[in-house]
Design brief:
2 copies of one chain form a homodimer.
Chain A: H1 11-24, H2 30-39, H3 41-49, H4 58-63, H5 69-78, E1 81-84, E2 114-117, E3 128-132, H6 139-154, E4 158-161, H7 167-177, E5 182-185, H8 199-208, E6 210-213, H9 223-236, E7 239-242, H10 250-260, E8 264-267, H11 278-286, E9 290-291, H12 295-302, H13 325-333, H14 342-349, H15 353-365, E10 369-372, E11 375-378, H16 390-393
Parallel strand pairs in A: 3-4, 3-7, 4-5, 5-6, 7-8, 8-9
Antiparallel strand pairs in A: 1-2, 2-6, 10-11
Chain lengths: 396, 396
């Protein structure tokens, strides 16, 4: 389904009609969105007022008479808030995927429009990732969210989240810390900071990124509006990363939307002893989420093919890495913690005595073997020493 | 490939011949194992002595004259050590799966026999799981290993590991703590505790479970023997759980054997910030391992179908769980943190004024809503209060 492209002269009427509809209907109404697409919002409002549209309740149609979309728009503009609708150059086309979902479950309608505050244009957030999770995040989860947000934001991907406590705010802050793009999607008006204590976080996002809502300025969040908001977070982004989520976490609702929209679903594991990670582990086990451990892996999954290949993990080179095959053969022939004769080493390594002796002296020079009473032994490798302390020595 | 079943009278000769071969050849020699299966070890030894077997080196054949298998066996029996070979009632049949692997890589040969110390019979460890991981385990990893080991051991599954520092010892101890079956597979003789500081752990396993090796008593561990030992841990068990493993961990070698043998491969995630979990996360991402968070999930994967269904996670019932649809509708109509009039609630909930008032009073009785100046509001839910402290209040 493509966005309505009414002639430019009609755009203001279309915009005002969509504001009016948004004031009367709760977000996500699939039938309303479809009708607005098919008829245009101007005609839909006319039809509703004439009550000729089946099944749409006349009470709601009556309420259309009481709204003042022009005043809403003027007031919003005076606050630096714009209203973006389908067909506008700024409209984020990826969000239209909602139109393809069946209407029965969870109010998936394409938003009538998006109220936006901030310099970031919504048509520039196609390269984006949602980072969501528990409001009662642990410091581990907050650290992971901020790290991943910073990494993807540095590559120009917008970090989209819900500005809630915990993981959401850590994700926004991670992006802001590297002056990367970040978008908060709210369940109430963009002029009403929620939670109220995140007022300055939202002010920072409005100054450098964007604060977005399908609810008009002044509207308050409700439970259903939070759930509707979650579909926008999933629909705006290429993929959703769940960092921490207990069972029943709202983040799992966003994850479900990402799944329905066939967007990439990712989860960051945590300690299995942490209740804050149980929901993520469930997603990783049964929910089709891919395990990611950092921003590079997120970029690998959401980036274009070959656009972001994560670096192979680098390991410190060990002394053993550059041995000749004779040296390695002799070293492997040692018993662990054993003093071994040159004869026995030669036999086990299947080398001659001379070759074995040469290799032994080279190993000694490398600090890997040493001559002791009765033969030779491997020099203990600090990396192989026990890391567990006393209880290793006195098992009971 | 089935085990050789020579007549009972010949079992001692077969046993002695296998001991002799084991003294001369390093573990895992695929061709030697195959020949022993096909010819019987007695005839193989004869053929080797006559040097009529192609490509087996004559030097090794010569050394067969120097071994004393009868003395080895007598000495072992005096130490309470038995030697179990294919065809014995105690032979663990699941280990024969090694015969099906291609010989080219990593010496997968079926062991010539297994030296065993301890009361646990090897034919009773078919219901078993390997729990392996890093020697330099964290306390988190050790706790996970011990917990999982205890859970599966309580269900009668033997916990098989390598008695190394870290995860291995935690797994054995977890099983011993519930007096469950546990088997240590060593890379040297079962009479030689390795690491030496685990002497009393190994003594406990020999007293209540089993200590096993394909190397004869007195033999010392080498690097290759550790790698060969890992194949036995994988082959003895229905599945392998990797709890913590850095890159290059030996546990990943055991995991690779489990994969080649089509046994269930499992990994316990940890913090992505922990180097000790990087190898496990890699297995979970790219190695085909299933994510498990506890013993119940391990049992689900390795148990018979329907034998072990993990309990669905139980959640504390919340006050909201038993509301009527009217009560829920009114509750959902509240703005978060907003004082709302009965009129507005009625409109948003699409209920009449009377029904709304009834529901409000019921919600008040449940402690979910309260009447305040100007209308009603939701009673703040402690579970929804911010968990992050000061920085939530002063975002900067």
């Amino acid at each position: 389904m493509t966005a309505v492209t009414t002639p430019t002269a009609d755009r203001l009427d279309e915009r005002l009609a969509r504001i009016a509809l948004g004031r009367v209907y709760e977000p996500g109404d699939h039938r309303l969105s479809s009708l607005a697409e098919q008829l245009g919002a101007v005609r839909l409002v006319e039809e509703l007022r004439r009550q000729r549209v089946d099944k749409l309740e006349s009470e709601l149609a009556d309420r259309l008479d009481g709204v003042s979309p022009r005043r809403d728009l003027d007031r919003a503009e005076s606050l630096g808030i714009r209203f973006v609708i389908p067909g506008d150059p700024e409209w984020p086309r990826q969000i239209q995927a909602l139109a393809g979902l069946p209407g029965g479950r969870g109010r998936p309608g394409v938003p009538l429009g998006l109220w936006v505050r901030g310099p970031l244009r919504l048509d520039e957030v196609e390269r984006s990732v949602a980072i969501v999770g528990s409001r009662s995040a642990t410091s581990y989860g907050a650290e992971c969210a901020a790290e991943i947000a910073a990494e993807v934001a540095m590559k120009g991907f917008a970090v989209v989240s819900g500005a809630a406590y915990g993981i959401d705010q850590a994700a926004h802050r991670g992006a802001l810390a590297v002056r990367g793009p970040s978008v908060a999607v709210l369940a109430g008006g963009v002029d009403r900071p929620y939670p109220p204590s995140h007022e300055s976080l939202l002010a920072a996002l409005a100054a450098e990124g964007a604060v977005v809502s399908e609810l008009a300025p002044g509207e308050h969040p409700t439970k259903h509006r939070f759930l509707s908001r979650n579909r926008l977070i999933a629909a705006l982004t290429r993929g959703t990363v769940v960092v921490e989520a207990a069972h029943r976490s709202g983040a799992l609702n966003t994850a479900a939307w990402a799944g329905r929209l066939n967007r990439v679903l990712m989860g960051v594991p945590g300690p299995v002893t942490s209740a804050s990670s149980t929901g993520v582990h469930h997603l990783l086990r049964n929910g089709g989420a891919a395990l990611v451990t950092g921003g590079a892996e997120v970029l690998e999954l959401i980036g274009g093919v070959g656009e972001h290949l994560p670096e192979a993990p680098r390991m410190a080179e060990r002394r053993h890495d550059r041995l000749t095959s004779d040296q390695q053969g002799v070293l492997d022939a040692f018993g662990y913690g054993e003093v071994t004769s040159v004869d026995a080493l030669a036999r086990d390594a299947r080398l001659g005595l001379v070759a074995t002796s040469v290799a032994l002296n080279q190993l000694a020079a490398l600090g890997l073997a040493e001559r002791v009473a009765g033969g030779w032994r491997m020099t203990p490798d600090p990396a192989l020493q026990p890391a567990l302390p006393s209880d290793d020595r006195s098992p009971s």
